[in-house]
Write a structure and sequence with these properties.
Blueprint: H1 12-24, E1 36-40, H2 49-55, E2 59-62, E3 71-72, H3 74-81, E4 97-101, H4 105-109, H5 124-127, E5 129-130, H6 141-146, E6 154-155, H7 159-172, E7 184-185, H8 187-193, H9 198-207, H10 209-215, H11 218-232, H12 236-250, H13 254-264, H14 272-275, H15 291-309, H16 313-327, H17 334-337, H18 342-356, H19 366-389, H20 394-421, H21 428-433, E8 443-448, H22 453-465, E9 469-476, H23 483-489, E10 497-502, E11 507-510, E12 515-516, H24 519-528, E13 532-533, E14 549-553, H25 556-563, H26 571-587, E15 592-596, E16 602-603, E17 618-621, E18 626-628, E19 638-641, E20 644-650, E21 664-665, H27 671-674, E22 675-682, E23 690-698, E24 701-708, E25 714-718, E26 733-734, E27 740-744, E28 754-760, E29 766-773
Parallel strand pairs: 1-4, 1-5, 2-3, 2-4, 6-7, 8-14, 8-15, 13-14
Antiparallel strand pairs: 9-22, 10-11, 11-12, 15-22, 16-21, 17-18, 18-20, 19-20, 23-24, 24-27, 25-26, 25-28, 28-29
């Protein structure tokens, strides 16, 4: 298989797994959820359990005690979550998913009225996460198929279609989504899934022969045998699954179509992997179909990466790039989709890191070094982060961390030393480039602590994908690059700061009272100056102030100090949190949101190199900076404190740290710590919006009430909301100034049919739609 596989979910099962991952993201990032609770009041999802158990080994369900099928009562589920059953619980780092059929989430929330048998689960609402719709309701099968946060399919909402959908659910799990898109799905479409698909039935049998036989009566089994004999020259009963596996391995004829279907949805047919692990009958076999070949190549790649670590830096970079050329094709093999090629997956960001780390940041001036970092250098940091998040297994994670360190550390250190050589006496050149942030009308300043430049670039991509205009610039953080020193300069309150060190913790004094510039005092100073200070949930519009607004969000720095290398896995959730806040502020009426920060950071697997600083020389010592006592002399590089040049700050050379085993740190002089992002996001033209408020039928005439800001909006009624040719009205109607439109269905034969009311803009694009039944209520 040479075509690249799309990252978008290809099947219902893959979409559910992706949705589980989203639900497990922890915005706070302090700890992973203890469990993911999946409530299903009507038990709609129960028919999908056999398929899910095969694809999701960390799935456990509430029911009669049956550990072989990972099912048991509440107390057993609690033991699974708390890992008191080590032989049955998932590995450390893997969050168990608890499927709770016939349980309503509201039962767990109303603790006083919760049935006694379910009460042990109540506390998991707070230690764990819940899988539900964005409005808080449980995911029904219908909702997941039709929601834009699920599959986004156009499904008729009549009772016959709902019944057929639930009947076909086990078969729908592996059906390619592409075959279901672009048309309205009705009962016949789902009923057809239950018959006439010999490839799906063949794969289901090959994956689980005993289960398939148990699920089918004698008549259906006989039919299946006949179809297989005719279509694939294979009798399942006489030839067995081993012969089928051999035919799939060697391919040819219709077996290539069978392979294609397996390749499209391998997680639905996990058992097939075992069938293909035997020796091939001939040498003329597509090696990509053999899981044993892939496993052997993974072992060889692991040894090669381990050997590359021991090479000189330049040779190690070259070797990793060469390994990428050798193994990149395996990322398109089906085994990568099944998680059996973790090192091949990690090679892509590792190779980018190796390419970028060959040459340290250069430039004859400090400005040139900053420009080099802003243009390309940050991509090296990003590649290192991505490499550290591609693998999850302990052995693979350890190996990839060591490779990242071997490639990344020399580049980091050499780049930092070059920047330090250009910083000037006492850091004067850096000091001259560090400037405060001013308030602006119609602009909300959004402070995100520890937003490093590469992370801001990812945030920019996330916002642009949502259709917003952005500009990513840079500022220079003051020395030392710690929050106490740098946050005041990132706010309009910087002019009120005095050049005195407060309690030797790197914070200047603030205002006429000359108190330490804590976060709360900075906010008070901003308020006195006329800036609107918004709390984390506050969305006041900008009209209340001529000097703009100020808000704070994000926990990157706090998480870095708490988690060390584990920060890499929390960054995506933090980006999403910041992006959501930016969008919310823009939608509340702010013309611009300017994201600012105080400092960046260094993150290195295994810890930054330890540099000794005698205790008697330092009044205050952190990992990357220390206040030098009085007139003490030291061989350590020193810099003037930004707020008072009489105060000397010692900082380790390169990327050293005064504290051993420090993986995450800031406070020193490097591009990662000093060059910080300044990201401005603006609203485009006001988005055209429409919402159908009500639908009323009188006979075959439909009256629709619409709330919209779209000029020239009109209303249609269609059998398939995406297809104009399925319109059933005599003519579409414009939305009046009062928001009303009235249409007549021309053909009485449509009475009782499932249809959709659609609001369209002037270009015919759908702005909103809602299902209805023609003539309903008349």
């Amino acid at each position: 298989m040479t075509a690249a596989k799309s990252k978008a979910p290809g099947t219902l099962l893959e979409a559910m797994l992706a949705s589980f991952d989203v639900a497990l993201r922890s915005p706070d990032g302090v700890a992973d959820p203890a469990a993911l609770l999946w409530t299903d009041p009507d038990g709609q999802w129960r028919p999908l359990l056999p398929t899910l158990r095969s694809a999701v080994p960390q799935l456990y369900s509430l029911g009669p005690y049956d550990p072989a099928n990972r099912t048991g009562p509440v107390i057993w589920l609690k033991c699974i979550v708390d890992r008191t059953l080590p032989d049955l619980s998932p590995p450390q780092g893997v969050v168990p998913i608890l499927y709770l059929p016939d349980v309503d989430r509201q039962q767990l929330r109303a603790a006083a009225d919760c049935p006694l048998r379910l009460q042990p689960l109540i506390e998991l609402q707070y230690r764990g996460a819940l899988w539900h719709q964005r409005d808080g309701r449980d995911w029904t099968v219908e909702a997941f198929l039709t929601s834009e946060h699920g599959l986004g399919l156009d499904v008729a909402l009549d009772s016959a279609t709902r019944a057929a959908l639930l009947r076909a659910l086990p078969l729908l799990a592996g059906e390619p989504i592409a075959t279901l898109q672009g048309r309205r799905l009705e009962a016949d479409d789902f009923d057809r899934l239950t018959i006439g698909d010999p490839i799906r039935d063949l794969l289901s049998w090959m994956s689980d022969p005993a289960g398939f036989r148990a699920r089918n009566d004698a008549g259906r089994w006989a039919t299946f045998r006949t179809v297989c004999t005719r279509e694939f020259d294979l009798d399942p009963e006489q030839d067995g699954e081993r012969k089928a596996g051999d035919a799939l391995l060697h391919g040819g004829g219709k077996w290539d179509a069978v392979w294609q279907r397996f390749w499209e949805a391998p997680k639905v047919y996990r058992g097939i992997s075992a069938l293909l692990r035997g020796p091939a009958k001939t040498l003329f076999v597509d090696q990509s179909r053999r899981p044993t070949v892939n496993a052997e190549k993974e072992l060889v790649l692991g040894r090669d990466l381990d050997a590359a670590i021991k090479l000189p830096h330049h040779e190690a970079c070259e070797r990793v790039v060469a390994l990428e050329a050798e193994h990149k094709a395996r990322r398109e093999w089906v085994w990568a989709e099944l998680g059996e090629s973790p090192l091949a997956m990690a090679l892509e960001p590792l190779a980018r890191l190796a390419n970028l780390a060959r040459t340290a940041l250069g430039g004859a001036t400090l400005e040139a070094v900053v420009e080099a970092y802003v243009c390309e250098g940050w991509r090296c940091d990003r590649a290192a982060l991505e490499a550290m998040t591609t693998v999850t297994g302990p052995a693979e994670s350890s190996l990839v961390a060591r490779v990242v360190r071997a490639l990344y550390e020399p580049w980091l250190d050499k780049s930092a030393r070059h920047l330090q050589s250009l910083a000037g006496y006492d850091g004067a050149n850096l000091h001259n480039l560090a400037a405060g942030v001013s308030a602006e009308k119609e602009t909300c300043l959004l402070f995100a602590d520890g937003l490093r430049f590469d992370v801001a670039a990812m945030l920019q991509e996330r916002l642009e994908a949502r259709g917003f205009r952005t500009r990513l610039g840079q500022r220079i953080a003051p020395l030392p690059t710690v929050t106490a020193t740098a946050k005041p300069l990132a706010s309009p309150a910087y002019q009120a700061c005095a050049g005195e060190l407060a309690a030797e913790n790197f914070a200047p004094l603030l205002g006429s009272a000359r108190q330490e510039s804590t976060a709360s005092r900075l906010r008070e100073e901003l308020g006195r100056a006329g800036v609107v200070v918004l709390s984390a949930e506050d969305l006041r519009p900008p009209s209340r102030s001529e000097l703009g607004g100020w808000s704070e969000i994000g926990q990157l720095d706090q998480l870095g100090h708490t988690l060390g290398m584990r920060l890499a896995r929390q960054i995506d959730a933090e980006i999403e949190t910041i992006a959501n806040r930016v969008v919310a502020l823009l939608e509340a009426g702010w013309s611009r949101v300017r994201v600012v920060t105080d400092h960046g950071w260094l993150l290195l697997p295994g810890g930054l190199p330890k540099v000794a600083l005698p205790h008697y020389l330092a009044a205050t010592r952190w990992a990357r900076c220390a206040v030098v006592k009085g007139e003490s002399t030291t061989d350590m590089p020193t810099y003037a404190w930004h707020w008072n040049p009489q105060v000397r700050i010692a900082s380790p050379p390169g990327i050293g740290a005064f504290v051993a085993d420090t993986e995450y740190a800031h406070g020193g002089v490097s591009a990662q710590e000093c060059v910080v992002p300044d990201l401005t996001t603006e609203r485009g033209a006001d988005r055209v919006r429409a919402e159908i408020k009500s639908i009323h039928w009188r006979g075959m005439r439909c009256r629709v009430l619409v709330e919209t800001n779209a000029a020239g909006a009109r209303v249609d009624i269609r059998l398939n909301w995406k297809q104009p040719t399925t319109s059933i009205v005599a003519a579409t109607k414009d939305v009046s100034a009062s928001g009303e439109a009235s249409m007549a269905v021309a053909d009485d034969s449509h009475e009782g049919a499932a249809a959709t009311v659609v609001v369209l803009d002037q270009n015919g694009q759908a702005l909103d739609y809602k299902p209805t039944t023609v003539g309903e209520g008349t």
